[in-house]
Amino acid sequence: MASKKSLVLGGIALGTCAILSFPIINLLTPRAPLQISAAKSSDARFKKFSRQLQTSCADCHTSGLTQYPFYFKLPIANTLIAKDILEAQSAWDLPREKLTGDQPFREADFARIKLVIANQEMPPAKYTALHWDAIITPDVQKQLFEYIDNNNPNDGLTPISKRNMPQTDAKKVALGKALFFDKRLSQDNTLNCASCHGLDKGGTDQTQVSIGVHGQKGSINSPTVFNAAYNFCQFWDGRARDLQEQSAGPVTNPVEMGSNFDDVVKKLEMDAPFKKQFVQTYPDGLSKKNITDAIAQYEKTLITPNSPYDKFLRGEKDALTAQQKRGYELFLSNNCASCHSGINMGGQSFEKMGVKADYFAWRNIHKLGGHTKINMADNGRFNATQKQSDRFKFKVPTLRNIAITYPYFHDGSTSDLVQAVQIMARFQEGTELSDSDAKDIAAFLTSTTGEYEGKSLATR
Ligand code: HEC
Ligand code: HEC
Ligand code: HEC
Q1: Ligand 2, atom 2: nearest CA belongs to which residue?
Q2: What are the angstrom distances between the C-alpha of 156 and each of 118, 148, 159, 337, 346?
Q3: Is residue 400 over pLDDT 90?
């Protein structure tokens, strides 16, 4: 017994020595730099920004870039470190491709980096105690923030304007529009895209989960097609790269349209006038590739400018009511725009549902939306990547037109916007909003309802 105890004590002493000696070893062995020289960027300021994040953040937040200390081999240390890294990458991802400049940093990235550094949450103190080079000194912080502010003006919020509307080809758009409303895309000719993405319903079906062919219930809430062109990828779990790849999905999904492209092409081939029109624009004729291209072209026209929110951002200070202006300030001060950022107030990143607390446990206890247990769809991005740190992550949804795209969240768990706002504050920010603050934010969010074909979406 005694010898076992002294062995454990000896082990602890050795481990402590090893950990304490680490800063020195760390300083003696500089970390391998990324191959930034091979990167697309020639911007010296970007390189400096990237280098700082590599030194201060990448160990924990970038898959494949962790430089494990030698004591990672020790049994207790390695489980602790692995747990920390899983937790870190669940909470926030810093993809390698962004550090090399192959993928852009977006408004949401800048906002979150700035937020955690300003709050002195990151890098964690227990890490900088061992990694002196990762400390962000006031000077370094000033430089980082200057770079961020230059690249992320207006808190990352941008109005829709002619300049940032997608370019389209009118003939392809006309074909895509016909296909969007064509029930022949479904197996039994009962459903078209608009069945689940009604343009009079904010681009959704306003039901908890969609109903597919033969009345089959889907497993996830249908997101809006309006402004989807601005999203960095498509679907809650991001499994489609773009709108063209996305639009093939519902056609062949057995619980959505339940068809296949051979059948769809056959049915459309029999329609001589349609085929003739199609070949005039796509000389190589009806095919999966051309059909999905046309639909994607049409979807790029489903943009909703001129909301009171857009007008407000463009300088019309009276476009918002007094309550909405309070809500706007609260939206910013509660850091909602650190994820709901950019032109689409979202659609820029995958984020865990429940960064600060366990949303799913709470939902199931309260049977919110009728849920009592976690299901497949709740796994989110994990379903597309099988990476543990992607579990419960979703593409951050747009907040544009939110007043009419209920019910909310991937699980359609509530149709009450005030409750949705309170859920966000609690589980994404770790704060409790008073009813009156949550109501003000919800009022602000209703100002994002825009116009389509010159008419407000609210009255279509
Ligand atoms: C030693 C590992 C480690 C390092 C280094 C590190 N983080 Fe983290 N980070 C974590 C862990 C663990 C969490 C999750 C738990 C938490 O929030 O404290 C986290 C959470 C986060 C979050 C989400 C939490 C929130 O409040 O929104 C962001 C954003 C973040 N880190 C950014 C950064 C940035 C930027 C850096 C570099 C300046 C950095 N981290 C350095 C471990 C690390
Ligand atoms: C049976 C209902 C249904 C039909 C029919 C349907 N969708 Fe969807 N759509 C959904 C659901 C549910 C999702 C979310 C699925 C997911 O993320 O896993 C979705 C997702 C999308 C998205 C992704 C939006 C985003 O922000 O990620 C787009 C775009 C879209 N659908 C367009 C279409 C088009 C185009 C068609 C016709 C070819 C179509 N849908 C047919 C239910 C449907
Ligand atoms: C850490 C990132 C993050 C922060 C911060 C954040 N959100 Fe979200 N938001 C998300 C994600 C991810 C979802 C989708 C979650 C899901 O479907 O399960 C979401 C969904 C929503 C929805 C529902 C949208 C829809 O169409 O279903 C609303 C409304 C919303 N957020 C408002 C807010 C407000 C208001 C704040 C500030 C109090 C906020 N969010 C802060 C990431 C964030």
Answers
A1: 196
A2: 17, 10, 10, 7, 10
A3: yes
